[in-house]
Amino acid sequence: MNIRVLRTLLLCVACFGLTFAHAADPEPGKKYFSLHLTTASTMESAQAAATRAGDLPWLRISKQGKLYVLRAGFWETAAEADQQFRLIRKQFPAAGMFKTQYSAGGFTLVGQENAADAASVTLAKDEHPKTE
């Protein structure tokens, strides 16, 4: 088998595995692992960064104080989040993985026009973003 074909097949298998491992509909109050991709001073900068993030699941922008934070994902295990973290590390060198609790209200999903139905993420005590 051609090495190029094999590489393409492996990439497809990895993408499908990551997609199915992700929580489709996070449950309020449940803890998940997410990725903190970047922080921006304007919504426009955060949206521009979001275009570089591709089709990461649950890609969202939240305002924290004067800053806009771009995050992605609600993975149930650290191993699942780490797989995606390793893939996006080149686009977002300062990215970090953190544990989060899903709750209603507060952030805008990228590409979602009606922010009224959006959800928010709050860090639990002692669960701050970490980088490697």
Q: How would you describe this structure to a colleague?
A:
By secondary structure, the chain is of the alpha+beta class. It contains 3 helices and 6 strands; from the N terminus they run H-E-H-E-E-H-E-E-E. It has helices at 3-21, 43-52, 78-88, and strands spanning 31-40, 60-64, 67-75, 96-104, 108-109, 119-122. The protein has a 6-stranded antiparallel β-sheet. A hairpin with a 2-residue loop joins strand 2 and strand 3. It is globular. The chain starts with a helix and ends in a 10-residue tail after the last strand.
Short description:
The protein has helices spanning 3-21, 43-52, 78-88, and strands spanning 31-40, 60-64, 67-75, 96-104, 108-109, 119-122. It is an alpha+beta fold and 132 residues long. The radius of gyration is 15 Å and the shape is globular.
Strand residue content: 25-35%
**H and E string:** HEHEEHEEE
The DSSP helix count reads 3
Please summarize the sheet with the most strands.
6 strands, antiparallel
Strand order of the largest sheet: 5-2-3-1-4-6
The count of DSSP E runs of length 2 or more, i.e. the number of strands, is 6
Overall morphology: globular
- Helical content stands at 25-40%
| Mean of pLDDT | 73
What is the rounded distance between the termini? Answer: 37 Å
Low-confidence stretches: 8-20, 113-132
Rg from C-alpha positions?
Answer: 15 Å
Secondary structure category: alpha+beta
SSE blueprint:
Blueprint: H1 3-21, E1 31-40, H2 43-52, E2 60-64, E3 67-75, H3 78-88, E4 96-104, E5 108-109, E6 119-122
Antiparallel strand pairs: 1-3, 1-4, 2-3, 2-5, 4-6
